[in-house]
Amino acid sequence: MEIIGYLASILIGISLGLIGGGGSILTVPVLVYLFHVDPVQATAYSLFIVGASSLVGAWPKYKQGFVNLKTAVIFGIPSIVAVFATRKFLVPAIPNEIGSIGGLMITKSLLMMMLFAVLMVAASFSMIRSKSSKETESEGEQKFNYPMILLEGALVGILTGLVGAGGGFLIIPALVMLSKLPMKQAVGTSLLIIAAKSLIGFTGDLGNRTMDWTLLLSVTALAIAGIFIGDKLSKRIDGNKLKTGFGWFVLVMGLYIIAQQLFFPIVSSH
Hints:
10 helices; mainly alpha; 270 residues; two-stranded antiparallel sheet; globular
């Protein structure tokens, strides 16, 4: 299973390189089901893997002029504060056994995986319904809806902290609608925001749990290699068709995780 896990790690990066997102939605399932990492631990590992991969992916976008630094700071600061606080204080405060519903014991691991699966289903609809990026291109002076940007940034940060996903499918529409960024700039800026909040959020876990750095760095290196493969493939493949197909794949995976957790929940000892 580990060999499949390492191959899947490359797919995480390929997804990021091809469509500018989606890779993070694969990271936790890969870690849990293929590397048998505890679900709570997997959300921490995912922050590092997604953060490092997104940072590498953001650099060429920055060189091409597709990263708006002002927007990244305004959206990123509340998001970074929220994700760090969530990992440092909120996640450790959640009890291992929360309660029971109809005879099903709700554990911390079950809650994390169910939240993640619901996020996957929501993300899949966003990808399946995505239209051509042309309709979201906009020109003119950039205007900021500051209260909404700050609120959205904080909410995405809390969600990222809980489930370990980058949240690009939430960030990109927010940047287009609230900051009036063209789609290409929204994708590039989103990668920088994801990188900053994921890596800083990961530091909130450093004092709370022991890390398997060999596994963590191996998966991260393969995901980064996948980004370069995905970037080259993106010049040959229709991104919109690919995004739709990937959306259906994520939907099936999300529904599978919900069914698996309800009927065969992973028992955590952490």
